[in-house]
Structures are given as C-alpha cells and as structure tokens.
Design goal:
single chain; about 300 residues; alpha/beta; TIM Barrel; about 45% helix; disordered C terminus; binds 3-methyl-2-oxobutanoic acid
Length: about 300
C-alpha cells in the first residue's frame, strides 16, 4: 500500500484521468485507521457524527468542540488520507470573520487538511474568505442536512428544471469562490453528471449516481453500525450491528456461567508467594488496622 499523503493535485489528476475518488466519513481513531489503511483518498469527519455517534435526531445540534474532538481522534489514526473537517451548523453562517476563525481551528487545533461547509451561492463569500486564509474548502450542495427545516425534509434536490439550474449555478459559484471539490447529495444522476462535466474541480456524490468524480458514504451506514434508518442511496457492505449484538450476548453468557475469564486471561501468583501471603495474613489478622477493620466490617470473609 502506497503511504504517500494524498494531496489536492492528486484529486485533480484523478478527475483529469477519470479515476474515481474514494471518500468515507470517520469520527474516531480506530475507524480512521481502518479507512486510512484501506487506501481511501479522503476522510470526512462529517457532522453526521451528531446522528450516528452522538444519537441526535439531526446534525443541527453538533458543536464546534464536539467536531474538534472527533477530528483530533481521526487525525491521530490517519496517515495517508486527506482529512476534511465538517463545519457544524452556525459555525460559519452568521459572520464571515467568525467562519474564517472557526475554519482555522480545524487546521490549527485538529490537524485537518481542509474544511467542508454546506450551501451554494449564499456561502460563496465565506468560501472565498476561508480559501484566502489558506484553508482548502470543500462545498456541499443538493440535500444539505443543516437546512433540513428549510428544505422540508430529506428530499431529493434538483428534480425540476429550475431547481437543477439553481444547483448548477451554485456549483459554478462555489468553484469560482475557490472550492477544491463539491459534494453533491441526493440529486438526480443526470443532473449530477451534467454538473460534474461542467466543473473543472471534482464532484463527490452521495445519492448522485455513478458519474460524479468520486463517492462518499457515512461509514456507519456502510458497516451496518447505525440501525435507526438506512438512506436509499447507502449500501451496507457489512452488518456489524448484528455481529456486535452476538458478541455481547456471548460475553454476557460466559460471565454468567463463569467461562470467562478463562485460564489464559488470568494472572497467577507463585505457590511460594501465596503460602507466604497466607501466613502474613494469619499474623496480621489479630492486629487489623482500625481504618481497615472499619471499612471492611464484613469480617466473616476468609481467604
Ligand atoms: O456529515 C456528513 O457525513 C456529510 C456527508 C454525508 C457528505 O456531510
């Protein structure tokens, strides 16, 4: 496995050569290590963290501090992948200067290589300011979960001619503002393909068909670790939830039947030391320190 760190020119080269870009989310050290070792190009510490790890009903409550902690863990686990921190709701919408400062925290405090934020033309100035500060930005249009109330639910975007046109304009504005790539979420495949062909930066699809320059999935969906729901666009490559349940049941049974811990999980004291201990215990049993006797009032226990 090639260990050279993935760079932005590598992504451009892949787009030029028609080689699909791979991207997955991760939120902790062990899964970041696994994704990195699998040779995935991009790791997104998505704000989906709020739903699949923290158990919120949407991504909206996620805070900067929660995101930074997850990003730090991922950065400790990944060596090769290009790392992207997802800016949480209200960390970039209110004020451009605040957005730049918060983007900077992902780089300075959490070792991310780039940030991602949601929105089209309305965030173009923010994207420009962050990239001017030297921080690469990934855009995200189509279904943007942080605006779920405004969108009226998790519905497919760009399904009318006018809406598809809006999406194209958003994509072009983000490219012009300096985004290095754009996530297209839950948009019709032909619309995604059209946008992909019009852009010189890569598109990464999630529920956007096969013609985007790359694909991303939430790792908990891919591994079958999140059982609340599975979006239509996600594919489960494993059912870890079932495996975990099986392992936990086995553990419970083995503890209850005293088959765990087995001898190989157990530590020994040499006979000679044990005999000496028993003798010491006998000598001490007549002069148990007051505090000890008090705290261990059950004097019936014999070792
Ligand atoms: O938060 C996230 O995981 C995302 C991906 C679905 C693109 O934004």
């Amino acid at each position: 496995m090639e260990r050279k760190k993935v760079t932005l020119p590598d992504l451009s080269r892949k787009k030029e050569q028609g080689i699909p870009i791979t991207m997955l989310t991760a939120y902790d050290y062990p899964l970041a290590q696994a994704v990195d070792q699998a040779g995935i190009d991009l790791i997104l510490v998505g704000d989906s963290y709020g739903m699949v790890v923290l158990g919120y009903n949407s991504t909206v409550p996620v805070t900067m501090e929660q995101m930074l902690t997850a990003c730090q863990a991922v950065a400790r686990g990944a060596r090769r992948a290009f790392l992207i921190g997802d800016m949480p709701f209200m960390s970039y919408q209110a004020d451009v200067a605040e957005a730049v400062r918060n983007a900077g925290r992902f780089i300075k405090e959490a070792n991310m290589d780039a940030v991602k934020l949601e929105g089209g033309r309305e965030v173009a100035n923010t994207v420009r300011a962050i990239t001017n500060a030297g921080i690469p930005v990934m855009g995200h249009i189509g279904l943007t979960p942080q605006s779920i109330s405004q969108l009226g639910g998790y519905r497919t975007q760009g399904t009318t001619a006018a809406a598809a046109h809006e999406l194209l304009d958003d994509a072009l504005a983000l490219q012009e503002a300096g985004c290095f790539a754009i996530v297209l979420e839950k948009v019709p495949d032909r619309v995604a393909e059209f946008i992909t062909k019009r852009l010189h930066i890569p598109t990464i699809g999630i529920g956007a068909g096969t013609h985007t320059d790359g694909q991303v999935l939430v790792i908990h969906d891919l591994l079958g670790l999140f059982d609340r729901f599975l979006p239509k666009f996600a594919k489960q490559y494993a059912q870890l939830h079932g495996l975990i349940a099986q392992a936990l049941n086995e553990y419970k049974t083995e503890v209850e039947t005293r088959t765990f811990p087995a001898p190989e999980h157990t530590f020994a004291i040499q006979d000679q030391e044990w005999e000496a201990f028993l003798q010491m215990k006998d000598e001490h049993s007549t002069q148990v320190p007051f505090a000890f006797a008090d705290a261990h009032a059950d004097t019936s226990r014999v070792y």
